[in-house]
Amino acid sequence: MSLQSSQRRAYRTRNKVKAVSDRPRLSVHRSDQHIYAQVIDDAKGVTIAAASSLTITDSGTKTDTAKLVGQAIAKAAMDKGVKAVVFDRGSAKYHGRVKALADAAREGGLDF
């Protein structure tokens, strides 16, 4: 059974991130219409905080929505006591909406 190239990229990125970090992982998934972010503790296998564009009601471009999701995930993580994370972009390039979410999360106080 062969994996699709996007799955291979996601596994490759995730394995590098998990191998070097004892910090929680900020995982981002980008679909055509929405963007999702989770702060995951891989040692315990639990999701600490989550945010997505499904909960954002403001209209605007998808990049603007990604910025709002980045701010929301930063706030949710800070409320749970998480200040430092490692960024997992999955199979997506660090560009566009993914970069906008990451920059907004940094501005919200997360360190990565």
What does this structure look like?
The relative contact order is 0.21. The chain has a single domain, classed as Nucleotidyltransferase, domain 5. The mean pLDDT is 91. Helix content is 39%, strand content 21%. It is α+β, with helices and mostly antiparallel strands and 112 residues long.
- Spatial arrangement of strands, main beta sheet: 3-2-1-4
What does the average pLDDT come to?
91
Number of domains: 1
What CATH architecture label applies? 2-Layer Sandwich
First-last Cα distance = 35 Å
Total DSSP E strands: 4
Strand content: 15-25%
Biggest sheet statistics: 4 strands, mixed
What is the molecular shape? globular
Count of separate DSSP helical elements:
3
Give start-end ranges of low-pLDDT stretches: none
Radius of gyration: 14 Å
CATH topology description: Nucleotidyltransferase, domain 5
Helical residues, percent = 25-40%
- Which secondary-structure class do the elements indicate? alpha+beta
What's the quaternary structure here? single chain
Task: Write a concise keyword list for the protein shown above.
4 strands; 3 helices; globular; 21% strand; 112 residues; Nucleotidyltransferase, domain 5; four-stranded mixed β-sheet
